[in-house]
Design brief:
The complex is a heterodimer of chains A (259) and B (249). With 259 residues, chain A is mostly helical. Chain A contains 12 helices and no strands. Chain B has 249 residues and is α/β, with parallel strands linked by helices. Chain B has a single domain, classed as P-loop containing nucleotide triphosphate hydrolases (Rossmann fold). The longest helix of chain B has 17 residues. The chains are: A mainly alpha (259), B alpha/beta (249).
Chain lengths: 259, 249
């Protein structure tokens, strides 16, 4: 696996990722009138709805509740959208995998930049809100970068696992849709952990790997720092990427032949 | 290994295919009765072949004989079920002319995209763009979306990008299936120039004339086994005689 990793960072692969990403950027809003704005309408609509519903119940005790909500929404959205996108892209790219010598993980990695780019733009809205509420500090940007990198690594790791499973059974898509909906409610997006019961708190924090990412990045946007969640997030990112890549190396050939 | 581009020793390849349509009911039934859902399909049997660096080898055989599977094994896309394949360097492959293209992108964007897949860099592709498009006969279609082109034109573009990017070890499968005779004649010299000069080439095609013009050696695959390996014209002649014999029956 070490050898394989070494051969991954070649000029050829870098050039390929760039070209595949470029092509996707050209195609992403092809023939769309509102184009890129569609990417923001979803999170903004969800922000409006969740704010209208939950601000009276949960929001009254949370400072800068719109920022609190938006940061959670965009993170969970980034996770759900990217995992779906990468999972399906693996199957859709099968002709390329069967007819070229291109490394399969390179094709998957090339599907990350677009959702990541959209996520970063959305994050700028959060930064603007953070400035508005007087919570912004330049240190948080520096501390935020490793969390964003770790979150992306975590998403890639999960996507690699899902892409493999999807080749064996299409049911994975439906199952993942179901899990995604559940994740939306078991992530602390519109409520705080202290607002829920003790066992639910433990479940949401340790049972849902999204929680530490949401908490650590949001705390930074709020001008605070949660060391435990921060460290836990960094660990999860590395762990899931290693797990996903290990499984991918072992099963990619079977998955491609089976699909 | 230095002198050899590929060494294949007793290579076999099996696939598992579904016995029936896969439904939840059949999956449960198979689990309960411990019946296998899949059956083994043997595509290649004990293939042993050595191809030297700089050799040009044709692969012939009927549909389903295992040509594409053999080429994919040689390219490292598939792993052999049994046996061993060793390659001197990573080959550049053209197994499907459509791979890597996108219908909605312009011809020029598709050149960059397809070029990157076969190891071409943007700077070099920009430099060679005129040559690539002229060879494909598509100089006037530079900014047209690919979907406006015919199958033959897309295949010409694919072949042109492939031949105008660097690579010393080439594997091609049915690279001229949709191309008109005029293009074959026109580009024969260009193809000859591109594929000679010490390059190792393995190509499968149903166009015996084309193969005989470019390859001194041929391998005839028949139902997953090597039936004949030797002088290209002789192998193709035998193969075509066999095909004619089968058709007469």
């Amino acid at each position: 696996m070490t050898n394989r990793l070494k051969n991954l960072f070649t000029r050829f692969n870098w050039n390929l990722v760039l070209e595949l990403t470029r092509a996707q950027f050209r195609l992403i809003d092809h023939n769309s009138i509102l184009g890129f704005f569609w990417s923001f309408l979803g999170p903004l609509a969800m922000l409006a709805v969740t704010y209208a519903i939950f601000s009276a119940r949960f929001g009254k005790n949370i400072y800068a509740y719109p920022l609190y909500l938006l940061s959670g929404i965009i993170m969970v959205n980034f996770f759900i959208n990217t995992t779906f996108y990468v999972m399906k892209s693996f199957y859709e790219a099968l002709p390329m995998m069967l007819n070229t010598t291109v490394r399969r993980e390179v094709i998957l990695v090339s599907h990350i930049p677009i959702p990541l780019y959209k996520f970063l733009i959305e994050l700028l809205f959060c930064v603007a809100l953070s400035v508005f509420y007087g919570r912004f500090s330049p240190t948080m940007v520096l501390l935020g970068l490793p969390i964003i990198a770790s979150f992306t690594a975590f998403i890639l790791g999960v996507s690699l696992l899902l892409a493999l499973l999807f080749c064996f059974a299409r049911d994975v898509e439906h199952l993942w849709m179901l899990i995604s909906r559940v994740l939306l409610f078991i992530s602390p997006i519109f409520y705080e952990l202290k607002d829920i019961s003790s066992w639910a708190r433990k479940f949401v924090y340790f049972g849902n790997p999204l929680t530490p990412f949401v908490i650590s990045l949001r705390e930074l946007l709020m001008g605070r720092f949660d060391a435990a969640s921060y460290a836990y997030s960094l660990f999860l990112g590395v762990f899931f990427l290693a797990l996903g890549y290990w499984a991918f190396c072992r099963l990619e050939d079977t998955a491609v032949e089976r699909a | 290994m230095n002198e050899n581009a590929i060494i294949a020793e007793n290579v076999s390849k099996h696939f598992f295919i579904l016995r029936h349509r896969e439904t939840a009911f059949r999956v449960i039934k198979a689990l309960l009765h411990k019946e296998p859902l899949m059956k083994k399909l043997r595509v290649l049997h004990n293939i042993s072949v050595t191809i030297k660096q700089g050799e040009r080898v044709a692969v012939v055989g009927n549909n389903g004989a295992g040509k594409t599977t053999l080429l994919r094994l040689m390219a490292g896309i598939y792993k052999p079920t049994t046996g061993l394949i060793r390659t001197g360097s990573e080959p550049k492959v053209l197994l499907n002319f459509w791979t890597g293209f996108n219908n909605d992108l312009s011809v020029i964007d598709n050149v960059y995209l397809r070029g990157a897949i076969v190891g071409g860099e943007r700077k070099a592709l920009t430099h060679d763009m005129k040559v690539i498009l002229e060879m494909a006969g598509l100089a006037t279609f530079m900014y047209s979306p690919l979907k406006r082109l015919s199958m033959g034109q897309i295949q010409r573009l694919s072949l042109s990008v492939f031949l105008n990017t660097p690579g010393d070890f080439l594997i091609l499968d049915e690279c001229l299936a949709f191309v008109d005779k005029g293009f074959i004649i026109k580009s024969d010299a260009a193809i000859r120039e591109k594929i000679t000069g010490g390059k190792t080439i393995i190509m499968a095609s149903h166009d015996g004339e084309f193969l005989a013009r470019h390859c001194p050696r041929a391998i005839w695959l028949d139902e997953g086994r090597i039936r004949m390996d030797g002088d290209c014209r002789r192998v193709i002649c035998e193969y075509e005689r066999s095909v004619a014999g089968q058709a007469a029956k």
